[in-house]
Amino acid sequence: MTMRTRPLGTTGPQVSALGLGCMGMSALYGDADRTESIATIHAALDAGVTLLDTGDFYGMGHNELLIGEALRTAPAELREKAQVSVKFGALRGPDGEWSGYDGRPAAVKNFAAYSLQRLGVDHIDVYRIARLDPEVPIEETVGAIAELIEKGHVRHVGLSEVGAETIRRAAATAPVTDLQIEYSLISRGIEKEILPTTRELGISITAYGVLSRGLISGHFTRDRQLGAHDFRAYSPRFQGDNLRHNLDLVDALRKIAERKGVSVAQIAIAWVLSRGEDIVPLVGARTRERLTESLGALDVTLDEADLTAIEEAVPPGAAAGDRYPAPQMAHLGTE
Ligand SMILES: NC(=O)c1ccc[n+]([C@@H]2O[C@H](COP(=O)([O-])OP(=O)(O)OC[C@H]3O[C@@H](n4cnc5c(N)ncnc54)[C@H](OP(=O)(O)O)[C@@H]3O)[C@@H](O)[C@H]2O)c1
């Protein structure tokens, strides 16, 4: 199979139509198996996935070291095609606590120096602050990335979870390739203002949470036990009545998936793919089995009747519960 590609904005490279988000291999969704994680990255590269997404704070460097090892041990021709997208700026403590964001230019360069070392690469393909630092104008943070680009350490500027005004200010400072933001059948907040803004400015969307962190994957069950370090144990959408309501939506999607002979996850990913060539879903597979399922979405065609049925099963705003717990909602520039 030849992997389809999509452009990363009008100023960026072509990337695989699906990217691999590596976060869950190190953090936030409970334990992951290191050997299987590396095998998953290798399988993704082998299938033609070029875009690998990480953050320097995912497991406090663990995720970058993991990707570094996967790249080092991959065949050279696949390693050379890999495009690594890195988020920085989130501050952590030794116990894993979160303590804000740092977008000062000196900090940006410091973060980048460590990321390059951990990843074992000579440049980062797309570099972005994970959340806006409220103390630092976006122009200063993006300006620091532009300096890293001039020196060859970074190729492109990206953004993450920022609103229309910040997108405009960033794009006026330097060319921006993509905005990374949550977008799925049950997280459609970007459609009103953010998506029209990125489209006007020629910026792509790298969509995360396409499966709503597994909630609409078809594999999540009402009685699933989540560990204390699993984000989903605190996420409003996974709690009590919200979870019951949201899994009812998944049951409605399952009927459509069964009619088409595909899986629920494939319907959810194919729906995001169907939103436009400027949208690149990042799938959070951390096993080869889940990766294969995700890649299968590239072969799913949704016709008008399918899209209508999907919209009826999960209308906009159908989900119960916010995307993040309240303290984290406060950091989003997008809500
Ligand atoms: N910019 C930001 O603010 C931000 C925020 C979050 C994530 N991200 C990036 O976006 C990436 C994707 O986000 P995400 O991991 O939350 O997305 P996701 O794809 O919605 O969720 C991934 C989870 O869904 C479950 N799953 C079930 N079936 C699957 C399948 N066929 N393929 C993949 N996963 C399946 C897995 O959980 P189990 O293994 O437990 O079944 C997996 O850990 C992250 O890895 C990260 O790089 C960015």
Task: Describe the structure in your own words.
Helix 1 (34-46) packs across helix 2 (62-72) and helix 5 packs parallel to helix 6 (164-173). The protein has 335 residues and is α/β, with parallel strands linked by helices. Helix 6 (164-173) links the parallel strand 9 and strand 10 (176-182). Helix content is 38%, strand content 17%. It has helices at residues 34-46, 62-72, 76-79, 105-119, 138-150, 164-173, 194-201, 240-260, 264-273, 288-296, 304-313, 326-329, and strands at residues 5-7, 14-16, 19-21, 51-55, 83-88, 90-92, 98-101, 124-129, 154-160, 176-182, 204-208, 279-283. The radius of gyration is 19 Å and the shape is globular. It has a single domain (5-329), classed as TIM Barrel (Alpha-Beta Barrel), CATH 3.20.20. It starts with a strand and ends in a 6-residue tail after the last helix. NADP nicotinamide-adenine-dinucleotide phosphate (NAP) is lined by residues 21-24, 29, 53, 87, 130, 160-161, 180, 208-214, 217, 219, 265, 282-286, 290, 293-294.
